[in-house]
Design brief:
Layout lengths: L2 E5 L3 H12 L3 E5 L3 H9 L9 H7 L3 E4 L2 H7 L2 E4 L14 H12 L7 E5 L7 H9 L4 E5 L9 H6 L3 E5 L3 H14 L5 E5 L1 H31 L5 H9 L19 H14 L5 H24 L6 E3 L15 H11 L4 E6 H11 L4 E5 L4
Parallel strand pairs: 1-2, 1-4, 2-3, 4-5, 5-6, 7-8, 9-10, 10-11
Helix pairs in contact: 9-11, 9-12, 11-12
């Protein structure tokens, strides 16, 4: 029970591996890139994610491999953290999970029962489908998604406020709960339910946060267009015990790799069940409208001859990710309209920006220690 295997040790998987290793577990992680695996084992890998490089150097019970069979033989507890990108229709792409499941089925049926714990974001009901495929192969499937933010993954894992467990059995739920109680420094709420309920819960939670963000920006836009400062208004609303101040600030719209796509996926799943998820749709639509209001206000208050500098254009300051970044869209629109725009970013981000936009911007490198 002291051994844990992780299938898929990209950014999130590696962080979870280091979190578990730090709390005393013997970890084996598996991925497909041999050069990356060698760098992990030699501890020469450098990550832009806060704390990962130091955590890897400090680890003593973490090993990486490209051999999936060796990884699953290491433990009866298998956490699965592969990518589930969004398809053009807004649903999640489960192909990488399917590939792993196919490989598990190709191996001899394990003599001892194994637990496959899916941590990727999935469409509701999908984990039940995986269980059906593996039920005769001595696997119990559970769902245990992460609630983290890019740039603070290790911190978020160590100080979790919620651990969501879609348990395949009571034994599985107990096991997962014990792992998190040992590996978290906080005292998180442990929410145990069925796989299907947990899948809805995961995207539902993120959709509630997008609703708060869009609501705050809507109130803020109303205040701004009235010539008022939105901060005291939102601060007062957030001070009400039924509401809370978290995610209730005026600023850029939401972006990144989770919030926008979770909103869309929930609306799609709801529609399939005969429910029109108007709140999720409205949050998404206002997020787009908010950018237009911000641009209108900015142009009214700033002459085109005035140079503009952005301290960051990633979707959040602690991250190096540009996916659906509202501040990047804001900067891009201004530059396209003739404003002289300087982007101050980390060098790795600048290289990506140059590849996407060439000389549309002026670039200024900054050095942030992660």
């Amino acid at each position: 029970m002291n051994n844990i295997s992780l299938i898929g040790i990209g950014k999130l998987g590696l962080c979870l591996a280091l979190t578990f290793e730090k709390s005393g577990y013997n970890i084996m992680g598996c991925d497909i890139d041999e050069e990356y695996i060698n760098a992990l084992n030699l501890k020469t890998f450098h990550s832009e994610e806060e704390g990962v490089t130091k955590g890897l150097l400090a680890s003593t019970n973490f090993e990486a491999t490209v051999d999936l069979k060796r990884c699953i033989d290491h433990s009866n507890i298998l956490f699965l953290l592969v990518a589930t990108p969004s398809l053009d229709n807004g649903k999640y792409d489960h192909d990488q999970i399917e590939s792993v499941v196919g490989q598990l089925l190709s191996f001899e049926k394990p003599k001892e029962q194994k637990h496959l714990i899916i941590c990727c974001t999935t469409m509701p009901e999908y984990c039940d489908i995986v269980q059906d495929k593996l039920k005769n192969h001595n696997y119990i499937v559970s769902y245990n998604p992460e609630f983290i933010a890019q740039g603070t993954i290790l911190r978020d894992q160590a100080h979790a406020s919620l651990v969501l467990i879609g348990e395949g059995s009571k034994e599985a739920g107990d096991m997962i709960q014990n792992i998190y109680e040992k590996s978290t420094l906080s005292t998180p709420t442990i929410a145990r339910m069925t796989r299907h309920q947990a899948e809805i819960c995961k995207i539902g939670l993120n959709c509630f946060l997008t609703t708060k963000i869009s609501f705050a920006n809507m109130i803020g836009d109303v205040a701004k267009f009235s010539g008022l400062d939105p901060e005291p208004i939102l601060k007062a609303i957030g001070s009400e015990s039924r509401i809370s101040p978290q995610y209730l600030n005026y600023g850029y719209g939401y972006g990144g790799p989770c919030f926008p796509r979770d909103n869309r996926a929930l609306a799609i799943y709801a529609q399939e069940k005969g429910v029109e998820a108007l709140i999720s749709t409205a949050s998404d639509e206002f997020n787009k409208a908010h950018l237009e209001y911000q641009l209108e206000l900015f142009k009214a208050q700033n002459d085109i001859s005035k140079p503009i500098a952005f301290d960051y254009v990633t979707y959040k300051p602690q991250s190096t990710m540009l996916v659906e970044s509202q501040q990047l869209l804001f900067a891009k629109r201004l530059a396209e309209d003739g404003y002289i725009v300087t982007l101050k970013e980390r060098q790795v981000v600048i290289e990506e920006l140059k590849g996407l936009y060439g000389d549309l911007f002026i670039y200024e490198a900054r050095d942030d220690e992660l």
